[in-house]
Amino acid sequence: MKTAPGASGLIMNEPLLWEKGKKGRKGMSIPAADVPLATPEAALAGAGPDFPDLSEIDVIRHYTRLSQWNFGVDTGLYPLGSCTMKYNPKTNEKQAATPAIAAAHPMLDDEYVQGTLRIMYELQQYLINITGMAAATLQPSAGAQGELTGMLIFDAYHKSKGSKRNKILIPDTAHGTNPASAALCGYKPVPVASNAEGMLDVETVKALMDEETAGIMVTNPNTLGLFEENIRAVAEIVHAKGGLVYGDGANMNAIMGIVDLSKCGVDVMHLNLHKTFSTPHGGGGPGAGPVCVVEKLARFLPIPHVKKDGDTYRLDWDNPDSIGRVHGYHGNYGVLVKAYSYILSMGAANLKKASQLAVLNANYIKERLKGALHLPYDRPCMHECVFSDEKQHELKVATLDIAKRLIDYGYHPPTVYFPLVVHGAIMIEPTETECKEDIDQFIDTILLILQEAKENPQLLYDAPVMAKRKRLDETLAARKPCLCG
Ligand SMILES: *Cc1c(COP(=O)(O)O)cnc(C)c1O
């Protein structure tokens, strides 16, 4: 490895604004009032919050310095598995900020907002085409809320059949939000063990599926980064007992334009626009988790729903079977515009190519690192690959040490200790937006760290030494967070 992208020079220290402020400093000067003050100045003193007095340059430097401590997709490779931290083209931000779109009032009558309704309608159609489903709602504001919406649709469907169901099957390779969303809806999650290949096993599902079970929630590709090859057979078993199949489509980045989920037997699924379709995320949103369904479930979708009559778009409220609203107004509209802009600017062929490159990049990393790191499931992966620290056990080096040492070399660590089915997991998702040179540099850095682990493991135990914050006591940090700086 020739150079690392990390740098430690010229990173400024920055105190709290309260420590920095000095009585009498001002951000701007206002001419003296030529009328008497309505409230005497003395009466104002001491009222309100204790804000420090600061000059303009104090404030600008404070926030600029804090922003330079930040690390994001625009700074460097962010290989966080299960998150799709890909680069988001700036044109999508620009379209979402178009004044006519950003300032449109959500309570205007349909006739005044034909353009914004059209964006919603067409985005629904694109998502339907991408997934192979029949209808979509754009309301949910996150993947997990999409899951809850899906579970409410499951419930409405079973009630419409006069059937009472209280359980749901959840594979051990599903995302953690799946059992949580199902439980929130009143279903008891029943874990399904994956087989030695990390796959959902047909016989295991057959043994667990009964007529009290509402269906199954399948994350596909699963959290091992593997495509659930038995999905069709599993869906047939679930359908035969009157159940439904939920597809967690947060990992759609691996299969856009390649897999038709309806042909896999999926009845309801969500997409994460903030992962696959170009909205920067991490740190809490906003996001969007549209839900797509097959024809027979369309009547349960949330209201209002955007419809098109001839050349006119309208919000349709008239749906007695709907589960109701799951979000105020139209969902996180800005995120919807970014996804719409992303899909239009990419086009169908390039969306497919993005998935192919995401898969190629992950497999390249898997192949180059598998000699140095233990690869528990050695088979072609999708958009991410999962290693473990098993080979480093004898050196007394753990996943956390490797992750922390990466920070010293200027990399955001990958996802660690998830999925839970792999002990000491290291889950890497490069995404399609990284070029070969940058991926090679990342791989070389990991190989260098693994060499350090053999020669001088103390370097890893102490890491990070270059970052502003050194190694934290993670337990203490979680139990007694210090939130004041
Ligand atoms: C991210 C993710 C979710 C949850 O999505 P949020 O938008 O964070 O609620 C669900 N399933 C999978 C597979 C994911 O990767």
Report mean pLDDT, rounded to a whole number.
Answer: 94
State the total count of DSSP E strands: 12
Fold-level CATH name of the largest domain: Aspartate Aminotransferase, domain 2
Ions, cofactors and other bound molecules: pyridoxal-5'-phosphate
Could you state the oligomeric state of the chains shown? single chain
Largest sheet, spatial ordering of strands: 1-7-6-5-4-2-3
Strand content: 5-15%
N-end to C-end Cα span: 36 Å
Could you walk me through the main structural features you see in this protein, from its secondary elements to its overall organization?
With 485 residues, this protein is of the alpha/beta class. It folds into 2 domains: 257 residues, Aspartate Aminotransferase, domain 2; 125 residues, Aspartate Aminotransferase, domain 1, CATH 3.90.1150. It is 36% helix and 11% strand. The chain has 16 helices and 12 strands. The protein has a 7-stranded mixed sheet, with helices on both faces. Helix 8 links the parallel strand 2 and strand 3. Helix 4 runs antiparallel to helix 12 and helix 12 crosses helix 14. The chain is globular. The protein starts with 16 loop residues before the first helix and ends in a 6-residue tail after the last helix. The mean pLDDT is 94. The chain binds pyridoxal-5'-phosphate (PLP). Pyridoxal-5'-phosphate binds next to helix 7. Keywords: Oxidoreductase, Pyridoxal phosphate. InterPro entries: GDC-P_C, GDC-P_N, GDC_P, PyrdxlP-dep_Trfase, PyrdxlP-dep_Trfase_major, PyrdxlP-dep_Trfase_small. Its EC number is 1.4.4.2. GO terms for molecular function: glycine binding; glycine dehydrogenase (decarboxylating) activity; pyridoxal phosphate binding. It holds the Pfam family GcvP2_C.
